[in-house]
Structures are given as structure tokens and as C-alpha cells.
Write a structure and sequence with these properties.
Order of helices and strands: HEEEEEHEEHHEHEHEHEEE
Shape: globular
Oligomer: single chain
Strand content: 25-35%
CATH architecture of the largest domain: 3-Layer(aba) Sandwich
Radius of gyration: 18 Å
Helix content: 25-40%
CATH topology of the largest domain: Rossmann fold
CATH superfamily of the largest domain: von Willebrand factor, type A domain
Number of domains: 2
Length: about 290
């Protein structure tokens, strides 16, 4: 059940993260110092359960094809900043599923919810307040048929990424729930993927089975370290989102260093020597 308010400990942690931990994805202590890079990733075993005991010895990281020194690997505890985008043509297909996602994820972050009508309209800004989120969920039921527009979801992803970058969100996440998909040959795709990379957000997509995804909803999750899942609706959607919430809640945070004078590169490769473990990490990261 969604909690009505944050505990004092959570509020203190949230305030520290947003105001005191201004960590975009890169920290540069001084022009001559090593550059420290931060990456969030998930680890699942062969059964799809989260893996919680990885260490630096289990991992290797390459940036721009070059091995980089891992400074630390630990469970991620910083609050997530999650932009939820609902694209359901007004039929209310994801109301219950979104509630299940929040039920699992709420104590791990703050959430903004937007619905496409077909232009995106924000129902609630970033918050962990249970009553505010409950009110927004109440507006996700059947709303009358909305004519889908495949360009609008691309624009919504781009805008969410830009907002998260402006907010300097340290652990940004975008979640798209769609029954319509995107315009497959959109001229907006490059700009949206660039905004996604610059924000450092992971893009996660739950889509109706049978849709053909384009470059943003199809390639964006792989590039950003997110998940993409098809669903037939109903309880299937709720179970998939509850599992996604649990996976995100059990992410790792990895930091690694670049030698003095080495320029940042957008290409990242994270691998593990642990058998049966699958890592989900970005392969494109900010290079500025």
C-alpha cells in the first residue's frame, strides 16, 4: 500500500541527494586529477532473480575500448528520480500496473507521472508523497478515446530526459508504458537519444505485445541500461512492473577512474566473470 508520507530519515537522505550530492554522471575534482565516473547497473541470475553479492573482482569495465580501473562497487542506496510516461490512448490500460510499480518502488525514490492526451500532461511532479501519487493514479483510468500520436512519446522521452538533466538528478530513470509505440522513421529520434544519453537516465519500456518499436523505445533501453518488456496486459503488466521495480531497487553503483589527461568516451562495456549472471548497464554514457 502506498505510504502517505516520508519518514524523517528518508527526507534527510532525499534532501542530501538533491542538494548536497550534485553528481551528474561525472565528477572532475580538478583539471589535473583523475576523472571519476559513476554507473548504475542491474544484475540478474539465470532465473531472473536479482544478484546481491557482486564485488569489483567479479567485474571489468571498458570505456572507449580501454580497460579502466574500478574504484568501488556497492549496492545503490541513493534515491531514484523516476519519470513515468503513460501512453495508453485513454483506455486506462496501465492504472493497476502503475500502482503495483509504485507500491514496490515508492520508498526508493521520487516520482513524476505524465499522461499523453496525446500531448504529455504532467499529473504530479517529483514526489514520494503517497496521497499525491494516489491522486495521480486515480486519473489514469478510462478517460475517453485519445488519438495516438507516435511522435508525442518520442518528444515526451526527450523532455523527461532534459528535465532530469536540468535537475542534476543523480539516479535518473524514465519509465514508458505504451499501447501505441512510436513513429518508426521519426526525424526526432536522434535528438531524443542524444538527450537521453546526456541525462544519464535509464529508459525502461513496457509495451503492448505486437507493437514494432523504433529507435527510441527499442534501442534507447539498451543504450541507457534499461529494460524493455512486452505485455499482453492485465495482471501480466502488473507483475512485469513489480519485478522491474524490485530490480531497480537492487541496482549497484559502480565508480571507475580515467587516467590523467584521458578524454571521456561515450562507449561503455561492463562484463562479469560470474557464470549465469546477466548485467544490464548502459553502453552509451555522457561524454562531457
Amino acid at each position: 500500500m502506498i505510504r502517505a508520507r516520508m519518514t524523517p530519515l528518508w527526507l534527510a537522505a532525499l534532501t542530501l541527494t538533491w542538494s548536497g550530492h550534485i553528481a551528474a554522471r561525472t565528477e572532475t575534482p580538478s583539471p589535473a586529477a583523475e576523472v571519476v565516473r559513476t554507473v548504475y547497473f542491474s544484475a540478474l541470475d539465470a532465473s531472473g532473480a536479482v544478484v546481491t553479492d557482486l564485488t569489483a573482482a567479479d567485474l571489468s569495465v571498458k570505456e572507449g575500448g580501454k580497460d579502466r580501473a574500478i574504484a568501488a562497487v556497492q549496492p545503490a542506496t541513493a534515491p531514484m528520480q523516476v519519470a513515468i510516461l503513460i501512453d495508453d490512448a485513454g483506455i486506462g490500460a496501465f492504472q493497476s500496473a502503475a500502482a503495483q510499480f509504485l507500491q514496490v518502488a515508492q520508498r526508493h525514490g521520487v516520482f513524476a507521472i505524465s499522461v499523453l492526451n496525446p500531448q504529455p500532461a504532467k499529473l504530479v511532479n517529483y514526489t514520494a508523497d503517497g496521497e499525491a501519487l494516489k491522486t495521480a493514479l486515480g486519473q489514469l483510468g478510462q478517460r475517453g478515446r485519445v488519438q495516438p500520436d507516435g511522435e508525442q512519446i518520442i518528444d515526451a522521452v526527450s523532455d523527461a530526459a532534459k528535465e532530469l538533466q536540468r535537475l542534476k538528478a543523480p539516479r535518473p530513470v524514465i519509465l514508458v508504458l505504451t499501447t501505441n509505440g512510436e513513429t518508426l522513421q521519426s526525424t526526432m529520434a536522434d535528438a531524443a537519444l542524444s538527450a537521453l544519453k546526456a541525462s544519464g537516465a535509464s529508459l525502461n519500456v513496457l509495451y503492448a505485445a505486437g507493437l514494432n518499436l523504433g529507435r527510441v523505445l527499442g534501442d534507447g533501453p539498451r543504450q541507457s541500461g534499461g529494460f524493455v518488456t512486452s505485455t499482453s496486459g492485465g495482471t501480466t503488466s502488473g507483475a512485469a512492473l513489480a519485478k522491474l521495480a524490485d530490480t531497480l531497487a537492487h541496482q549497484y553503483v559502480l565508480t571507475y577512474t580515467l587516467p590523467d589527461g584521458v578524454k571521456m568516451n561515450e562507449k561503455l562495456q561492463l562484463t562479469t566473470t560470474r557464470k549465469g549472471v546477466t548485467l544490464t548497464a548502459p553502453n552509451r554514457i555522457p561524454d562531457k
